[in-house]
Amino acid sequence: MRAGRGPAQGPCHRQRGVRGVAIIEFVLGLAMASTGTGATLVSGPHTPASNCSASVFSMHNLSGLQLQGHDWMSSGDSSEAGCLASCCALPNCTGWNYHVASTIPTHHPKQCWLSAAPRLYATAAEVTDTWVGGARVPVTCPAHANPDHSCTPATPQCDGSNYTRCREELVRSVFNTTTGRLPSRDTPDHIEDWSNWSMHGVPGPGQGTGVGDVEWTMGLQKLIWTIGLPGNGMRQGMLRLNSTVWYSRNTSGDAPSNSPPVGYGVPAGDSPHCPTPDRPGYESWVGMSDTLVIHHNGHQPCSGGDPPRTTNCTDCTPNYDTSLDWFNQLGYDVMEMAMPMHGCNRILEPATSCERLCVDDPARGFNCSGCRNMLASDSHAWFEQFEEAGDEAMRYFLEPVILVVNYARNVLKYKHIVMVGLSGGGWTTTVAAALDPRIELSMPVAGSVPKFPSTLYPHWIPDLPEGAGKGVGGGGDFEQSSDRPFYTACGWTCLYVLAALEPDRHSLQMLHEHDSCCFATAGLHEPVAAYNQFVQGELERQPGGAGIFQTAANYGNFHEMNYRDKVVIATMIERLRRPRGILPAHFADIPYDVLQLSKE
Length: 600
Description:
Layout: E1 2-4, E2 22-28, E3 40-42, E4 60-61, E5 65-68, E6 72-74, H1 80-89, E7 95-102, E8 111-115, E9 120-124, E10 129-135, E11 139-140, H2 163-175, E12 190-193, E13 198-201, E14 214-217, E15 221-228, E16 241-248, H3 282-286, E17 291-296, H4 323-329, E18 333-337, H5 353-357, H6 384-388, H7 395-411, E19 416-422, H8 424-435, E20 441-445, H9 486-489, H10 492-498, E21 506-512, H11 525-540, E22 548-554, H12 563-577, H13 584-587, H14 594-597
Parallel strand pairs: 2-15, 3-6, 9-11, 17-18, 17-19, 19-20, 20-21, 21-22
Antiparallel strand pairs: 1-13, 2-12, 2-16, 4-10, 5-9, 6-8, 7-8, 7-10, 12-15, 13-14, 15-16, 16-18
């Protein structure tokens, strides 16, 4: 099946605004309101909050260390106790530093410096200066810091004792937020109508030679968000990227007619069937589905044009692998996404990527003068330089999903939100479902296994075939490396638990027995069963109840969302939509699951 943009030629052309697909782009990383070039003077005295004392900051004692990037200087009580009280009185104060003494008069001791940064950075004080202080958020300490003090590099590791707290730490680590809450924007920065998008090909089963040369119009909207902006406790990011999303409504009321096809007694102008009030299914055409499927294409190559292009694309193509239209025909509305730098998010001018996308922020120590422009071979490794500069690289991967969920739930009012994705889209599905409990059902396809151990689960499984012979954590992409800080807050099995932590939330991890890329299960049934048993055991011991996590594998031998995957996905979505929802018995009888067959 191929797709092309141009004048609508199908007989079922929709009017603008009746049913469209929207591309939504979000911009991430805007700066907070500036306070000017100098420090902001906070007047005093302050009354400490009743729940704030030195003990709040004891987790990160900054004795002997100096915070970097202070946000303001307090004019309150010029003493160590007064500095602590000033920070306690301000709900957005995350750390305080009191300059006790210095042998150099120009260093101005007896001053109190406060910060509102979601994550703080400290350096060892010069021998001429004495500093004290504390923080209530994670602090990155210098490698040579005195090991006797309690400044620790930061994020608490999830040990399974409190998964709600594990999610809060995961949110903080991904989005650098002091609130522990997810990004809150719920409206795209740009919506573009593409209601004249035409599909060509064989949309479904049929009879005889009349099937095949079919064209029909599907409404689309292009939704665009800017990623990297501040808000809801987040600081600005070092980058400004766009995230493009294709939004298409279900077509169950006007799917092309194939029984009988053209030439079998049906007038040529009557196929595909046009939706009119006198035809069955008209209501589904004019109305929204109750279910939105977020379909994440991951490292989707850019496609489209003539001839097809896979690099340096100047356009982006919806329905890249035909899944969008397939979901629409089953009766679901779809928002189709891709990872940063891929598909519709491709960076078209990599040689000037730093100049166009990097944003200086002296308060956070962001300086774009050392930015290295993207190379064609960089892929997601390009983000590492910004992570090393203190930015949160993973927000550019995950914030787009949260913004889509906000829009779907708060504005469009969908009853059910399901997320599926292949490969890097499967990885995104896993992490997004762990972050956001509004995703009721997540089904990542060939997206991950516990490829390195964690505090919660000290075992690992090789990522085959691409990680063969590479040891713990071998193979995979930038975002799957154990070097990414957020895995400290929540490792693989922690992510799996969080994806089904609440009652009536479920996660079905789908793998392939002989996948040509990654996460193949052949020869690994026992370790796969072991981490499944561990994750489901953690869910079953939750006092308020929880959902179900399970891994299913089929005989797929290619890295794709194959027909078996699609049957299972559709089956589980329909079970979710029924009054009784998904039941434990449904997981005991997953079609095509070779892991279950191996137990029989």
